[in-house]
Amino acid sequence: MGQAQAVLGDLPSEKRQNFSDLVSALEERFAPSSQTELYRVQFKERRQKASESLPELGQSIRRLSNLAYPTAPLDVRETLGKEQFIDALVDSEMRLRIKQSRPKGLNDAVRLAVELEAYNKAENKVREGRGYLRQTNNDDELSRGEKITNSDSPNKDIASWMQTIEKSLSTLTTEMTKLKTSDTKVDLLIIKRDIPKVRGQIRVVTIVANLVI
Questions:
Q1: Dmax over Cα atoms in the chain, in whole Å?
Q2: Mean model confidence pLDDT for the chain
Q3: Is the pLDDT of residue 203 over 70?
Q4: pLDDT for position 5
Q5: What is the DSSP letter of 209?
Q6: Is 88 exposed, middle or buried (0-12, 13-18, 19+ CB in 10 A)?
C-alpha cells in the first residue's frame, strides 16, 4: 500500500482524478510492459521438470498466467492456464486423455492429471507382478523338462543293454546248434552280467548253458 501511495504522490494533481491515468501509473510501476512480455515468454515456454509434481506445475503456471496477463478476466486466465498446463506435461498419452476429458479450468486439468498418474503407477505395479509370475512359471516348466530328460536317460541305457544281451543269446543259440551237429560235449557258462539299478532294484541276468551231448 505504501508503494501505491508513493506512485499516487508522484502524479500531477490533475491526473490523480483521472481513473485511466491512475491505472496506467500503477501498471507502469508494478507491471511494466517489458516485464509482462518476459512473463508471457516464460508462461508459453513452461514445461514440466523431471522432479516436479503435477500440483507444483499447476501452481507455477497459475502464477505465470497472472503475471503475464494481469488485466485479463479470470476466466480467460483459467483457460490459458489450463491449455498451457496440458502442453507442459511430459507424458503424451496423459496429454491426450486430459484433452479428451475437456476440463473446465486449470484446477480441473490438474485433478485429472493426478488421477491418471496414480492409475498409471498402479497399472505398472500390476504388470511387474504378472511378469514375475510368468518368469517363475517358465523356470518351473524348464526345471520339470530337465527332470524328465534326466529320468529318461537310465531307461535308454537299460534298453541298450537289453539289446546287447539279446544279441548274446542269439549268438549262443547259434553256437549250441553247431555243437549239436558236431557231436561234441561242451559246458558253456555265460558269466553274470549286472544291469544298473532301475527304480531301486538291481536286476541280475545270469545265463548258464550246460550242454552235455
A1: 156
A2: 75
A3: no
A4: 63
A5: E
A6: buried
